[in-house]
Amino acid sequence: MNTAAATTALGKRYGRTWALRDCSLSFPAGRVTALVGPNGAGKTTLLTILAGLSAPTTGTVSVLGVPAGSPRSRLSVAFVAQDTPVYTDLRVRDHLRVARDLNHQWDQRLAEERLAGFGIPPGRKAGKLSGGQQAQLALTLALARRPGLLLLDEPLARLDPVARHDFLGSLVTACYEEGISVVFSSHVLPEMERIASYLIVLSDGSIQVAGPCDDLLAGHRMLTGPAGRAGELAQRLGAISVQDGTRQSHLLVREAGDPPPGFQSREVTLEELILAYLRDQTATALPGPGTLRAEAVIS
Amino acid sequence: MTAITSGRVTIPAWRVVRAAWFRNRMTLTVLLAVFAVAAGWTLYEAERMRSWLIAHHIQQCIIPVNGVGSACEPLLTWGRFSSSFQAYYVIFPLLGAPVVLATFGGVRWLTREYETGSFRYTWTLGVGRFRWLAGTLLPLLAVAAAGAVACGLAYDRWFPAGQWLLSSPPSGAPWEWNEFPLTPLTFTASVLAGFGIAVCAAALIRRTVPAMAATAAVTAAGAYLADTRLRTWLITLHPVTARAEYGSSAGSPSGGGYLLRGWLTDHAGHVAPGFLITHDGGMMLPGGQLGTALSTGPAASERAWLAAHHYTYWISYQPAGRLLIFQASWVGALLTVAIVAFGLAIWRVAGSR
Amino acid sequence: MSPIVFYLDPGSGAPTYRQLVQQAERALLLGYLRRGDQLPRVKDVTSSLAINADTVLKAYRELEHKGIAEGRPGLGTFIVADPPVPGPRELAGLRRSLGRWLRDAGAAGLDERTMAALFEMSLHDFHAATAGAVA
């Protein structure tokens, strides 16, 4: 798989706090990568560094083969920041006009068709649009640049369910049709599960989980069995999460084979997996050579 | 996947400027309108005064800058002239314009980017931060400079008649605090310095209301200091000292010069104590016979008395030709402030990531 | 436009691509899809369901693997199999065995409502078992 972007030992410090620490990541090309993590984990910092808005303190970052933030990276990277900022006093069609002057490649027809398809009137000031319409405007402005890499920082936050659905649908379709690589950070886990091919879980500035969704799901199981034996099994297998009842326990483990005798196993959903890792901040699932490395510690 | 292709990496500068002009056209149009109103109002008053003086057959009082004017002094209709026109309806707006324009025109276009977060959109387009900022400043400064020059030229048209309303006798050239900063050269420099401070405040503070408050405070303080401290320091540098005839037009520096002080020396060369003429025409009289002689009777008899008692009248002044040099120095100082302020703003916006 | 429209059942527990496979198979069985019909275009599915294009492609590959559909580059994915239709003798035999079950249930004391509930539960188990078998 080609990489759309890669970071090596990336670190970012603000004052005395490290927002990102030693992050080495590789984002696949032509796919949607989900960036998940608690508030303050460093998702926005990572995205702004990829977009070239801020420079890393340590490490290197490259997007589409060139260093992030360089003039050549601006040719092909588009960023839709949190709250999808647009010029509130500028009309929709004026946004297109300004963007056409300030971009190397600009597909005016695509922009106009997309906006018409969503019923966004070109003569209205952007401040008077609804939250969903503003988000679609920001996404259109990004897509009409014909980027190779599209970065989105929690664009769903202000959207109602219909607007979210439309936004995601149009995003995934554009990704598929144009072959754009997408990195998308959000808190809405079920929706991430539907659209993402690659998952990164960021926690307190470092990477907890990184890998293709299919591989992660295939490599984890939820085991259900008698409560008495669960504790020892959890230690042995390095379980990510344990839930105990008086007679029955569930363990989320990094195992793909047959369950141990007396236990049933089922597949997990991505949401369950993410929640389990976020709750146990010491567990990691990082891509090693070949298979997933197991480094969980149960307290 | 759209890979990065090698090709032109920079957007042409004219496109950046065009986009910035289009983006900020509201602000720029309002700025232009304000300048137009100020210049237009000044011109209107200027023409009103001129036609009044012509109608009253005293057009010789319309003294060009650096001309000689005291032949106009005993105006029979002087009282009506000064009651028909009010200088400060023109002077105060012009004096306050750089502060107001900088505060309301120079700050918000940049702080808005920070407050709404739209800079995250703008700065990830094809242009880099520096070129975006430079391209946006260009139309702003062009409008500010053009508007300021227009206002200065309008003031130059107003001054020959209007100076009669400002001081009596009239100064002959714009040396005073309410005249000096309003000529085409000086007014443009103060407008540009004001915008420099505004943009610098916007880049450093990044919030609209605090940046506007800081801009208003700094530009107002700066205007006050430039007009009182800097100007007075400049025009007291290396004055020319010469003898003059007390109480006659020859007792003032030839047309357009600036009288700093006058004093008397006695036959032994000692300065007569307590007698001093200051540039605003004030005079301190000594007591005793000298004071009596100078305070009674017309100037001719005073001159005769001084000559009889071997007193010599001296003046210290700046010749007319030096005004331009002082204005140029003043402009240089303000433009330095502007350049430093713009440089600081550019460094803050485009330099660090 | 395709004859059918896919939907997502968030409560089904089956992975998304498997749901699409099952919906296509069921549509074929019920007659909504016939040989030669085109399955929904990938971009229509991604935009209407907001799911990953890979998921749709995976489902279509599965259908190809089962011999039900065939992808034609540049044109789309088309149904190439006929729906499995039970013959009249098979249908008659199924009806008879169903009738025997109903008589047994009635003899055991079940009323009609309970018989229907029992049938629903068995149908649910059957559904779960076939879903597991397909995986």
- Profile the largest sheet of chain B: 5 strands, antiparallel
Name of the CATH first level of the largest domain in chain C: Mainly Alpha
Strand percentage of chain C lies at: 5-15%
Cα-atom radius of gyration of chain C: 18 Å
Helix/strand class of chain C: mainly alpha
**Which structural class best describes the helix and strand composition of chain B?**
alpha+beta
Strand order of the largest sheet of chain B: 1-5-2-3-4
The total count of helices of chain B amounts to: 12
Q: Tell how many strands the DSSP assignment of chain B holds.
A: 5
Major interchain interface with per-chain residue totals: A-B, 51 and 31 residues
Beta fraction of chain B: 5-15%
Helix-strand pattern of chain B, N to C? HHHHHHHHHEEEEHHEH
Describe the overall structure:
Chain A is built from 9 helices and 14 strands. With 299 residues, chain A is an alpha/beta fold. Chain A has a 6-stranded mixed β-sheet with strand order 6-7-8-3-9-10, with helices on both faces. Mean pLDDT of chain A is 86; it is low at 290-299. With 353 residues, chain B is an alpha+beta fold. Chain B has helices spanning 13-23, 25-55, 78-84, 88-105, 108-116, 119-122, 129-166, 184-205, 208-235, 288-295, 299-308, 322-351; strands at residues 240-243, 258-265, 276-278, 283-284, 312-318. In chain B, strand 3 (276-278) and strand 4 (283-284) form a beta hairpin. In chain B, helix 1 (13-23) packs across helix 7, helix 2 (25-55) packs antiparallel against helix 4 and helix 8 packs parallel to helix 12 (322-351). Chain B is elongated, with a radius of gyration of 26 Å. Chain C has 135 residues and is mainly α. Chain C has 2 domains: 16-79, Winged helix-like DNA-binding domain superfamily/Winged helix DNA-binding domain (Arc Repressor Mutant, subunit A), CATH 1.10.10.10; 88-134. Chain C starts with 15 loop residues before the first helix and ends with a helix. The model of chain C has no long low-confidence stretch (mean pLDDT 85). The interface between A and C is medium-sized, with 18 and 16 residues.
